[in-house]
Design brief:
- Helix content is 63%, strand content 7%.
- By secondary structure, it is an alpha+beta fold.
- The chain has a domain at 2-88 and 177-210: Zincin-like.
- It has a 4-stranded mixed sheet with strand order 1-2-4-3.
- The chain is elongated.
- The two termini are 38 Å apart.
- Belongs to the peptidase M48 family.
- One of its GO terms (biological process) is proteolysis.
- Pfam families: Peptidase_M48.
Length: 236
């Protein structure tokens, strides 16, 4: 938080934000997280912490300026739903599994190529090394070419589904879908974006970067239009 110039706030330094978070925590039965305000123009918010007892909630100054109280409640409810659903832990585990697949693929490929290049005078030993190395290289290559992209697609699909669940959780906490719908509609027409392409960072942000039509499988968040449509359907 402090890397981005964030500061922890209390009821005196940022009464509006503090009171809204406190109100929603009482409504949801969650302990009050540490609350940070980031001096960033991009309207955004995110939660961190692997469980509700050790959670932090960050909001950018741009979000505070853009949203009215009902809209801000919707966004804060979304982030508190992430905390309540242990989504930060889920994201961390999913990212760790993705990295495991990545390193396994490239590790096996590298080890296989290394064994294939072993030099020895004993022909039979060289053949054994070459066969083992070729097998490892083939498996590693398949993981690198097929397994890693599939693991990435699975990770991003999980992330998008957790966003839908957090939207529903926000409505459950606030008892009012209109605030979140209005907030998402404002963000849809906003040009600001968080200055990062990092998947792990985007996965925990409320207003994450969206890819082009070809990269939708690798977006951490569903399109704003689909989120709005789901909320409107659930409200009708």
């Amino acid at each position: 938080m402090k890397i981005n110039g964030g500061r922890q706030i209390d009821e005196k330094s940022a009464p509006r934000l503090y009171e809204l978070v406190t109100e929603l925590c009482l409504a949801s039965g969650l302990p009050l997280p540490k609350i940070y305000l980031l001096p960033i123009d991009c309207p955004n918010a995110f939660a961190t912490g692997c469980d509700p007892e050790h959670a932090s909630l960050a909001v950018t100054s741009g979000l505070l300026e853009m949203m009215n109280d009902d809209e801000l409640r919707g966004v804060l409810g979304h982030e508190l739903a992430h905390i309540k659903n242990y989504d930060i832990r889920v994201t961390t585990i999913a990212m760790s599994l993705l990295e495991l697949v990545r390193y396994s693929g490239w590790g096996l490929l590298t080890a296989g190529l290394g064994l294939m290049s072993v030099k020895t005078r004993a022909g039979i030993i060289k053949l054994i090394f070459w066969m083992i190395g070729a097998s490892l290289a083939v498996v590693g290559g398949l993981i690198a070419i097929v397994g890693i992209p599939l693991a990435k697609i699975a990770f991003f699909a999980i992330s998008r589904e957790r966003e839908y669940l957090a939207d529903a959780g926000s409505v459950e906490i606030t008892r009012d879908p209109s605030g979140l719908i209005s907030a998402l509609e404002k963000l849809k027409n906003d040009d600001h974006q968080m200055p990062t392409d990092d998947a792990a960072t985007n996965a925990i942000c409320f207003n994450a970067k969206q890819g082009n039509w070809l990269m939708k499988l690798f977006d951490t968040h569903p399109p704003l239009e689909k989120r709005i449509a789901r909320l409107k359907d659930s409200a009708s």
